[in-house]
UniProtKB/TrEMBL annotation:
Organism: Paracidobacterium acidisoli
UniProt lineage: Bacteria, Pseudomonadati, Acidobacteriota, Terriglobia, Terriglobales
Matching CDD domains: IGPD
Protein's name according to its UniProt entry: Imidazoleglycerol-phosphate dehydratase
PROSITE patterns membership: IGP_DEHYDRATASE_1
Subcellular location, record wording: Cytoplasm
UniProt pathway annotation: Amino-acid biosynthesis; L-histidine biosynthesis; L-histidine from 5-phospho-alpha-D-ribose 1-diphosphate: step 6/9
Keyword Manganese (UniProt): no
């Protein structure tokens, strides 16, 4: 049987606020090279890549002297666009996935539907302004940006936990593993579209 080609997506996105270069391989080995200028955000993207078994090269130069918002949101949008591009017409994929992930005392859950419809619900339960050097409210902006770029439903929620670091990390790991399932090829459907409306 012929091995299926690896699905890849490259994005070069330039605005007055950010310059992003991104290369994604869905069938990867968890390899990453990430630089956004926000170390904790880099760490989250690195573990996202490893837990999703993707390969990711990502460089973002943003106006961090103004705020972190543009960098975090635009990276989310570009990463979502890369997945959307790599998946093409989405024939033969599982389309949806969910995962519960522990991080010591914390439990996070993520659910993803690559439906072609944009919606996001985020509940981090983070109670501090910063997690590491990342403005914590921007975790929401990342997932919302990804939802827009990927044209996907994204729901992430911290069920419980004490450490704010663990809450964010559990969500990124759960999201990666849910997305890994959603992107997986469905041997039962073959090349069928996982929708009755004829388009995703």
């Amino acid at each position: 049987m012929k091995k299926a080609a690896k699905r890849t997506g490259s994005i070069d996105r330039k605005t007055a606020e950010t310059q992003i270069s991104l290369k994604l391989t869905i069938e990867g080995a968890g390899r990453y090279k990430v630089s956004t200028g926000i170390r904790f955000f880099d760490h989250m993207l690195e573990l996202f890549t490893r837990h999703g078994a993707f390969d990711l090269e990502l460089t973002c130069k943003g106006d961090l002297d103004v705020d972190q918002h543009h960098t975090v949101e635009d990276v989310g949008i570009a990463l979502g666009e890369a997945f959307d591009k790599a998946l093409g017409d989405k024939r033969g994929i599982l389309r949806a996935g969910y995962f519960l992930m522990t991080m010591d005392e914390t439990l996070g859950i993520a659910a993803v539907d690559l439906s072609g419809r944009v919606a996001s619900v985020i509940d981090t339960k983070v109670k501090t302004r910063l997690v590491g050097d990342l403005q914590s409210e921007l975790v929401d902006d990342f997932f919302e940006g990804f939802s827009r770029g990927a044209r996907a439903n994204v729901h992430v929620k911290t069920m419980y936990g004490r450490s704010n670091h663990h809450k964010v990390e559990a969500l990124f790991k759960a999201f990666a593993r849910a997305l890994r399932v959603a992107c997986s090829r469905d041997p039962q459907l073959g090349e069928m579209l996982p929708s009755t409306k004829g388009l995703l």
